[in-house]
Known about the structure:
Blueprint: H1 4-11, H2 18-23, E1 28-32, E2 44-48, E3 51-57, E4 63-67, E5 81-83, E6 86-88, E7 95-96, E8 102-104, E9 120-121, E10 123-126, E11 129-132, E12 156-163, H3 167-175, H4 205-214, E13 219-225, E14 228-236, E15 242-250, E16 254-256, E17 262-263, E18 266-273, E19 276-284, E20 315-316, H5 330-334, H6 344-353, H7 371-388, E21 407-411, H8 427-433
Parallel strand pairs: 12-20
Antiparallel strand pairs: 1-11, 2-3, 3-4, 4-9, 5-6, 6-7, 7-8, 10-11, 12-19, 13-14, 14-15, 15-16, 15-21, 16-18, 17-21, 18-19
Helix pairs in contact: 3-6
Residues 70, 72-75, 89, 91-94 line the site of FE2/S2 (inorganic) cluster (FES).
Amino acid sequence: xxxxxxxxxxxxxxxxxxxxxxxxxxxxxxxxxxxIPEPGxxxxxxxxxxxxxxxxxxxxGRAGLVQENCPHRxxxxxxxxxxxxxxxxxxxxxxxDVDGRCVDMPxxxxxxxxxxxxxxxxxxxxxxxxxxxxxxxxxxTPFRDFGTEGHDAGEFTAGKQLTTCNWVQAxxxxxxxxxxxxxxxxxxxxxxxxxxxxxxxxxxxxxxWKFWRHDRAPRLEVDDTWYGYRYAGIRTTPNGNTHVxxxxxxxxxxxxxxxxPFSTGHxxxxxxxxxxxxxxxxxxxxxxxxxNLGGANLxxxxxxxxxxxxxxxxxxxxxxxxxxxxRIDRDAQRNGxxxxxxxxxxxxxxxxxxxxxxxxxxEEHLGSTDKAITRMRHILISAAKGLAAGKExxxxxxxxxxxxxxxxxxxxxxxxxxxxxxxxxxxxxxEALGIEPPLGAAGRPELAD
Length: 449
Ligand code: FES
Ligand SMILES: [Fe+2]
């Protein structure tokens, strides 16, 4: 439970709010590269942290992110002409480049371009996402590379889906391991044949469903890290083994959710404003489950649909919404699907959006399985207050290796510590990603003198 004023700090993102100021200190997805695919293409509207902006790719191929309203008399530049390496307002023809400079003022007998500058944010493209930095220029931090730098956008699946609630409650859903034993369950899990992988090592994805169902009250261990934390949801399997799901949280809005054997998929919850957010995901096509140790796809055994991909702009449509009660099927709910909703991600949308646009956390009753969520809130609120008191935000400096942050899932060997799983010290990660083990690490052949 939070005090009302803490809930306000946590959830409000507009300019001048504590959290809004904190979020503006991080490079943030503004839109997908696929939304502005080629030079001179149609501009798109971007609403980000409560600010109305327009993204465009100018005729020279540079991505720009500028205020939506023309600084002359406010017409929307979304309707503007993308031409001559600038966006030109259709009202009186003023034109602005990606840096917000006025480069043409054809309606004035004596143009005063140099006196007009519009709000423009820097753009950096990586992994199929157009990222921006909305904080003060003088505090601009290095781009945080979660593994996309130096790679073609085509090596990644990048997409986003609209979520009509506050970003924190949406992110809490992604961090919460306990709900997979409830919200996403269906009775057919009991009929999945035992393939013998309930033993120390990497189980099949199909068997994971069984473990989640078998032990519905996981124990949580949260470990603080330089970027936020990693935590394990610990369950006992039907054979009495210890199964861990490890999810990482990186300040402020990043999650790497558990998967077998480890995960590099980056899920981000990006505030549009206080009451809406985008759920972004960036996944390396060839580095997801590199040895395919999990066997069949997680969803191939489940009776759930998964998001439709393949739209040209990367925005996943929503067919299950509050307006249609998420297409809840009460017969299915009685007869096998715990939630009654047959689309996996929409099960998440149903619970997080039904809390209301901004959940009032003074009303909640938290238990031990909410430990990771309370930790995330604490980190965010302290960082926001800290920034206001002149403290550096966490995880923004140079030389930090965000590529090393991964989720993981495994059945532990006796005495095995979950903390090494999915890190650079994990032999499975080293083999899959070609990472050299650190000198002297276990398993590294000794060099002859
Ligand atoms: S309002 Fe844009 S040029 Fe006049
Ligand atoms: Fe979920």
